[in-house]
Write a structure and sequence with these properties.
With 137 residues, the protein is an alpha+beta fold. It has 4 helices and 5 strands, in the order αβαββαββα. The strands form 2 sheets. A 3-stranded antiparallel β-sheet has the order 2-3-5, with no helix packed on it. A two-stranded antiparallel sheet has the order 1-4. The structure holds iron/sulfur cluster (SF4) (2 copies).
Length: 137
């Protein structure tokens, strides 16, 4: 009896579709909630470094002087912390997966192109503050 049970299981397994996919040759399914890869809009990054501080695996490096933002794809555990903490909302979690990498040189470096907007100039009044109060008293 045990033999027939085993044969039944073996035949059923052979006839069934595999439970796994041949990634990357077969594209994985993604949903709106899939965490694929982190991407950045460098024109909005203010180099505050919050993402670097919050990243649990040390995958992000922000160099303010050199105006670069980089991510080590092999270190990233796709936790979404950096996306949630970014005050400029320039980080997004894409639903597509990053192509397979096999070497530890998968560091994406982005040049930050954000330009701080100039403060609007104060209108020149010609009178110093407090002059009016001195005359009225
Ligand atoms: S998703 Fe998580 S692990 Fe990946 S870079 Fe952002 S904070 Fe770091
Ligand atoms: S990506 Fe966002 S959190 Fe990271 S340095 Fe730029 S503005 Fe700050």
């Amino acid at each position: 009896m045990a033999f027939f049970e085993m044969a039944k299981t073996a035949i059923g397994t052979v006839l069934r579709k595999p439970a796994t996919r041949r990634y990357p040759s077969v594209a994985p399914k993604s949903t709106p909630l899939t965490r694929g890869r982190v991407s950045i809009d460098p024109s909005r990054c203010i180099s505050c470094g919050m993402c670097m501080k919050k990243c649990p695996s040390g995958a992000i490096c922000v160099r303010k002087e050199e105006k670069t933002w980089s991510i080590d794809r092999l270190k990233c555990v796709v936790c979404n912390c950096c996306v949630e903490v970014c005050p400029a909302h320039c980080l997004t979690m894409e639903t597509s997966y990053f192509p397979c990498v096999t070497e530890h040189s998968a560091i994406d470096v982005h040049a930050i192109t954000y330009v701080k907007p100039e403060r609007p100039k104060r209108p020149e009044t010609g009178e110093k503050a407090g002059e009016g109060t001195a005359e009225s008293s």
